[in-house]
Amino acid sequence: MAQQSDRIAFYNVENFFDTEYDSSKYFNGFTPEGDHHWTKSRYYHKRNNIYKVITALGEWQGITVIGLAEIENRKVLEYIINTTPLKKMNYGIVHYESPDKRGIDLGVLYLKDRFVLLQSDRFRVTDPENPDFLTRDIIYLKGIIQKDTVHIFYNHWPSRYGGMMNTVRLRKLAAQKILYLIDSLENSAKSPKILVLGDFNDNLEDESLQYLLKNSNGILEALPWVTVNGNVKGTIKHNADWSVFDRIFVSKNLLDEKGLHIYKGKMYIFDINFLLQRDEKNLGLKLDRTFTGFRYSGGFSDHLPVFVDVVK
C-alpha cells in the first residue's frame, strides 16, 4: 500500500447468507434445509474467509472503504465486524435492503476514522417496460478522505442469467441510472471526485459499459488494471476464459496528481495465492469458490476483489 494512502475496494463475496429462513423472500436455498444445506458451521467458515480477505486487502492500516456484493442483509455485515478481530478497527456499516428476488444486497464497510461519512443513499434501477423487474440497488456514499470530498457509487448490475443478449438491456438501464446520478452531481457540486465500482456483469468492450463511457460527457474513465501477483487474467473465470466483470471507473479529476488522486492511475486485481487453486481441467489457475453449482467446496468466492489507492 502506498504511503499516506487510503484503499477503496470492491468484492463480490459469493452468497454470504445467514442460516435463517426468511418468509418474506421466495428464495431460501441458504438454510440448513435448503438446496445448499447452509449450516452454521459453513456460515462461520464463510465469515472467517471474508475476514481473511478484508485483512489481507487492508494490510497493516486497514481498508478505508469496501463494498461487498452478494450479502444477504445487515446482520451478516455485523457478524463480520463484531465477531472477528475486525472489531478492533472501528468499522461502520452502510446497508439498504434491496428488492432483488434472491434476497442479495450490496453493503459497505468503512473505517470511521479515515472516511468521514457525510451522506449515504440507495438508488433503484427500474425497467419502464416491466414494472415487476427487480434488481440490486446502487449504493451512494459521500464522504471525506484526506480532507477531500469524494462520491462513491457501488454497483451489482443485473446478471447474464437468461443469456447475454437477453439481459444486456437491463445492464444498460443500470448504466443510465449511473449517468443520471453523475449528471445530478455535476449540476450540484463543483468538479466532484467520483468513483464507480462494482460487479458490472460485462467486460469493458461490451455494450453496457461502452454506453456508460460514451455518454458520461468525458467525465468517467475506466482505469487500466494490473494484478497484484501476476497470477490471473481477470476477476472471474468461466471454463478456460477470464473476464474482468469487476471494475473501477473514476472521474478524470482523480487522475490529476496535483490533488487527491488514484495512485499510479491503476486498478488492482487482488490475485493473492490463497484465493486461487490449480485448474486441472482448463489448466492454469481458477478461483477457490464456496460452491460449484450445488457442490460445497468451502472456498472464498467466484470473484476476485479489486481496489485503488487514493493519495495526495
Question: Quick gist of this model?
Answer:
The chain is built from 4 helices and 20 strands. The chain has 312 residues and is an alpha+beta fold. Helix 1 (40-58) crosses helix 2 and helix 3 (164-188) packs parallel to helix 4.
Explain what the structure shows:
With 312 residues, the chain is an alpha+beta fold. The protein has a single domain, classed as Deoxyribonuclease I, Chain A, CATH 3.60.10.10. Helix content is 20%, strand content 33%. It has four helices and 20 strands. The chain has helices at 40-58, 74-82, 164-188, 207-214; strands at residues 5-16, 65-71, 91-95, 105-111, 116-123, 138-145, 148-156, 193-199, 220-222, 225-227, 236-238, 241-243, 246-251, 261-262, 267-269, 276-278, 285-287, 291-292, 295-296, 306-311. Strands 1, 2, 3, 4, 10, 14, 15 and 20 form an eight-stranded mixed beta sheet that branches.
- Total count of helical runs of at least 4 residues: 4
Quaternary arrangement of the chains shown? single chain
How is the main sheet built?
A: 8 strands, mixed
Query: What is the global morphology?
Result: globular
Low-confidence stretches: none
State the separation between the terminal residues, measured CA to CA.
14 Å
Task: Quickly give the structural class.
Answer: alpha+beta
Helix content: 10-25%
Give the percentage of residues in beta strands. Answer: 25-35%
Rg measurement, Å: 19 Å
Report the count of strand segments: 20
Relevant CATH superfamily: Endonuclease/exonuclease/phosphatase
